[in-house]
Structures are given as C-alpha cells and as structure tokens.
Task: structure prediction
Amino acid sequence: EIVLTQSPATLSLSPGERATLSCRASQSVSSYLAWYQQKPGQAPRLLIYDASNRATGIPARFSGSGSGTDFTLTISSLEPEDFAVYYCQQRSNWPLMYTFGQGTKLEIK
Amino acid sequence: QVQLQESGPGLVKPSQTLSLTCTVSGGSISSGSYYWSWIRQPAGKGLEWIGRIYTSGSTNYNPSLKSRVTISVDTSKNQFSLKLSSVTAADTAVYYCASSYGELFGYWGQGTLVTVSS
Result:
C-alpha cells in the first residue's frame, strides 16, 4: 500500500502570501496525483489532477508540480477563501486502492 | 452537471449493518467510464476510501474493510448503495459518495453523518 505523507500538518500564513504544501509518496506514483480542498462542513473539491492540471473552474493561483514521489501544491497569493484543509490523493493498482494524505490545514496567521 | 446525494439512517446500533444509498442526478450512472465510490471521514480526521463499483457490477474494496463491505448498483434507479456490517464506534463518520474517473474524484455528495451508538 502506498502511503502519502503531507507536510506541514498546519501552515499559518496571511492573505496575499504564497503557500507551499508538500506531499510525499512512499513509492513512485508517476504523475497520478490529485489535490483537494476541503472547507468545514463541505465535501472535498478537486483542485489539481495528474499532478499539475487544474480542474475546471479552479483559479490560476493554484498550481501543482512534481512526479514520482515528491509533489507540491502552490497557492501563489492567498485569498481569504483559500484557508481550508488540503489533501493529496493517489490510486494504486495492486491492490486497487485510493489513498489520501493526512491533510495540511492552511490557517490564517 | 452530475450531482450526488447520500441518504440513509443517521444512527446505527453496534454490531448492526450500516446501509446508505447514493442517488445520482444530472446524468446516467451507466454512462461513460465512471466508477462510483464510497469514502468516509471520522470527525476531525482524514479521508478513507471504502470501495467502488462500476455499472457492470464489478467492485473493488479497501482491503482493510473488505470483509465487512458490500457495494451494489441499481441502474434503473440511478443509485448505488453501501452496506457495512458489524459496525462499531470506530465506524462513526461522515460518509461521502463520489464519482471517480481515472485516479481522481470529480463529483462528491454533500456527505451524511452516521453515528454508531446504542
């Protein structure tokens, strides 16, 4: 089973600052990694797929990069609505499993 | 746009079976190459994938839950369902249904809280 480890657990920043979130896989997942944003009381929302492709309607300030085992989600200039929990996720084929990282909470400083 | 809505009891007794249904609207559950998944999230914790089904009835389950999980589909009602047997307090969580394409989950239900308690 592939384990995804996100860091930091909590990130405290101010609006307008740049956020860099990390996700490390225990073995290579190629570029098959997705990022989600979850706000309190809401379902997760897909932000990034295939490591670097923005989902429909996602603002350009969100970008993803990486391949293999190390991935990054960057928010170039934080807006008030960006403060939330972010999860990375991958799918492995043997056994067939979807796994999520434990999440990074992005909070207002 | 595809929408998903979970429904089912919010309270289940220990050792009983949790049963939830997800109704898909805005598109046919049989169309395209989508899989239909259940995912859960205990309060204040992360996301755990439970299992998925294709409209053919083919299923895949999380190995850690496989012995207790059954996912089924009813294409005539545009619904798929989850049964989780022998529940304990550790199964208390918000349960989400979601559609997956490839490795990602594009559409999610709003989630439903299921509490396991006597």
Observations:
- Chain A touches chain B at residues 1, 32-34, 36, 42-46, 49, 55, 87, 89-91, 95-103 (CB under 8 Å).
- The mean pLDDT of chain A is 96.
- DSSP finds no helices and eleven strands in chain A.
- The first strand of chain A starts at residue 4 and ends at 7.
